[in-house]
Each structure stands twice: as structure tokens, then as C-alpha cells.
């Protein structure tokens, strides 16, 4: 069984399938019509995106890096926040999740190791019941990214499409196998213009 894009997994999902929050996003982020793909238009920052619903401890968030751009330093950052994106004003978002959003709010995020998330790579990340933030890239080892994530309140997934990471796509984390190739060539034309 191959990976399902978030729009294809809706019928089987016991919980609402993860999508990006429509309004709470960085100034440079453009979302596709299904809110499954986030693309940073310019510069290397202002690429913060959130899940549209809270994520339970142990629940995996899965994404694929669609576009990796050279010329910048650093890459994808992932984590969790207690900030409800429905209550955020997009213009008030800082340019970076690390350290800006972390310093301003109860947010725990980390950058994946340099070169750890290239085009086509599948990244899964989660927080366990002990408050540890983990990630796994493709079939690689489990990586401990952070300790001390406070549980006991809803947590939303937060991602920063930062630096060399230019575009990401949410996947169905329950899939046992993810295709090794992207479903279509990625370009600006694959995203519908915002209204």
C-alpha cells in the first residue's frame, strides 16, 4: 500500500486528516487548494505553518519535502505548540519558529540535521507521552530533537518551511510504505493562486 495524500485519506480517517491551517501562516507561505502543500515563495524565512487541528501525543505527522533549494543555510524545522492557530493573527507571526516563536510562546521545535530532509524525503515527527520530540527521515533512525515538551493541553503541529526547504506536502502517516517518487513535478503552477 502506498502513501495517500491527505486529500485521499479522508474517508478512512478516524480523526480529521491533518491539513495546514488556512489563515495562520507565514507571510511568504502559499497553500494549495486542499491545504496539503505549503510553498515558501521568496527569501529564506516567513515560512511558518500549523496543523488545522491538535495532534495527540504519539500521533505521527508525516510530510514529504517537495522542493529543496540551494543557496541558503539551514532547513526544515518541526515541532509542536500550544498556540491555537485559529486564534492567531497571521501578521503577528515572527519570521522564524526557532528561536522567535519558541521565545514568544509555549512552542517546542527543532531543525532537522543539516542535509537530513532533501527533495523526496519523507519526514515523520511526533511527541511521546514523556514530552520528547522525535523525528524520522525515510527509514532512518529515530532522532531525538527536543526534550521537555509540556503535555496536558492541546498541541498543534508547527513547521517552518525555512532555508533550503522550499515546499512540503502533508501525507497520511498511517501508510506503511511511502512512494519513493513525488506524484507530480513540483512548480509554482501546481499551486492554485490565493483568492
From TrEMBL:
The molecule here is called E3 ubiquitin-protein ligase NEURL3
Domain NHR span(s) in chain numbering? 17-173
Q: GO biological process: any one?
A: innate immune response
Entry EC no(s): 2.3.2.27
Provide the Gene Ontology terms for cellular component. Answer: early endosome
Location within or outside the cell: Cytoplasm
Q: In which pathway does it act?
A: Protein modification; protein ubiquitination
Describe the reaction catalysed, as an equation.
S-ubiquitinyl-[E2 ubiquitin-conjugating enzyme]-L-cysteine + [acceptor protein]-L-lysine = [E2 ubiquitin-conjugating enzyme]-L-cysteine + N(6)-ubiquitinyl-[acceptor protein]-L-lysine
Q: Does the keyword Transferase apply?
A: yes
Q: What class of enzyme is it?
A: transferase
Q: What are the entry keywords? A: Cytoplasm, Immunity, Innate immunity, Metal-binding, Transferase, Ubl conjugation pathway, Zinc, Zinc-finger
UniProt-listed InterPro entries: B30.2/SPRY_sf, Neuralized, NHR_dom
Q: GO MF terms on file?
A: ubiquitin protein ligase activity; zinc ion binding
| Lineage: superkingdom | Eukaryota
Q: Which Pfam families match?
A: Neuralized
Give the organism's phylogenetic lineage: Eukaryota, Metazoa, Chordata, Craniata, Vertebrata
Which PROSITE patterns does the annotation name? NHR
